[in-house]
């Protein structure tokens, strides 16, 4: 595990995504520090989910992405991905326990059965997200917040050093939100890093350390205290603050 807070966790150079002849993310270069809670924000269609999927190798990208100085292929087991809730087939016939157990699959060879250690990790992490009473429930029976917590438990089981989460708070109840944010702090204390697509701008200053602002390319990336400011927000969300630049520029003489 990399516990050096100052170390560069992710470096993108000229990194871009094109899908069906359309530029989804224009070429961007940035460095993200490790052991931080990093929010990815931007309006609908900004390319937030696309960035996470591309980083996971689920869709093609151009340019260079290095994690801890290495390409994805060399460090993939160190990264866990929590997809958007709508992207999961919740009618798949599997119970809560088995879904979390899937987090151990990357650690097992294809002929290996889960060991007692794997089962212990599953039980521990289901407990951590407060769902021990629901282990036998089919996943289709869970509430939105419980589903998100289950996916967080699956990611925790993977014992990854970097968690990429696509809107883990979308449609979750207050209890689930509190549990997930508390887990974030535990994970950071263990030296891990969280990159999380997030919509609730009001939570950014209190719950995140770093913010990546996208709008079909990079607008800004920096510590929340420096980068989460009205100028960058107006550039990121031009439809919400169309007059911002006009009203904040000094009047022409
Ligand atoms: N396979 C694809 N082919 C072409 N365009 C695509 C494809 N997948 C996504 N897009 C487009 O890419 C853009 C970015 O989508 P993405 O889901 O990354 O946005 P987002 O920032 O996560 O938005 P939201 O906040 O609504 O979830 C959208 O305009 C979307 O229509």
UniProtKB/TrEMBL annotation:
SMART domains for the chain: AAA
One GO MF annotation is: ATP hydrolysis activity
Query: What CDD domains does the entry give?
Result: ABC_Metallic_Cations
Q: Give one Pfam family.
A: ABC_tran
Where in this chain does the record put each ABC transporter domain? 10-241
Does this UniProt record's set of keywords contain DNA-binding?
A: no
Which key words tag this protein in UniProt?
ATP-binding, Nucleotide-binding, Transport
Q: Which InterPro entries match?
A: AAA+_ATPase, ABC_transporter-like_ATP-bd, ABC_transporter-like_CS, Metal_Ion_Import_ABC, P-loop_NTPase
Entry similarity comment: Belongs to the ABC transporter superfamily.
UniProt xrefs under PANTHER family: IRON TRANSPORT SYSTEM ATP-BINDING PROTEIN HI_0361-RELATED, METAL TRANSPORT SYSTEM ATP-BINDING PROTEIN TM_0124-RELATED
Full protein name: Peptide transporter
């Amino acid at each position: 595990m990399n516990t050096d807070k100052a170390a560069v966790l992710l470096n993108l150079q000229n990194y871009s995504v094109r899908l069906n002849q359309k530029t989804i993310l224009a070429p961007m270069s940035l460095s993200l520090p490790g052991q931080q809670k990093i929010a990815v924000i931007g309006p609908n269609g900004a390319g937030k989910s696309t960035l996470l999927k591309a980083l996971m190798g689920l869709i093609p990208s151009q340019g260079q992405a290095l994690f801890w100085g290495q390409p994805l292929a060399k460090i993939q087991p160190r990264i866990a991905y929590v997809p958007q809730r709508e992207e999961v087939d919740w009618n798949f016939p599997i119970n809560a326990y088995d879904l979390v157990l899937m987090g151990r699959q990357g650690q097992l060879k294809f002929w290996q059965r889960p060991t007692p250690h794997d089962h212990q990790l599953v039980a521990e992490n289901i407990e951590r997200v407060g769902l021990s009473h629901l282990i036998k429930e089919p996943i289709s029976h869970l509430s939105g917040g419980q589903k998100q917590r289950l996916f967080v438990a699956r990611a925790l089981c993977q014992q990854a050093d970097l968690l990429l989460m696509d809107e883990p708070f979308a449609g979750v109840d207050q209890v689930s939100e509190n549990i997930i944010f508390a887990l974030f702090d535990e994970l950071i204390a263990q030296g891990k890093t969280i990159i999380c697509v997030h919509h609730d701008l009001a939570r950014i200053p209190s719950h995140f350390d770093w913010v990546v602002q996208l709008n079909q390319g990079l607008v800004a990336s920096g510590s929340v205290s420096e980068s989460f400011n009205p100028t960058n927000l107006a550039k990121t969300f031009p439809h919400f603050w169309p007059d911002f630049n006009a009203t904040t520029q000094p009047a022409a003489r």
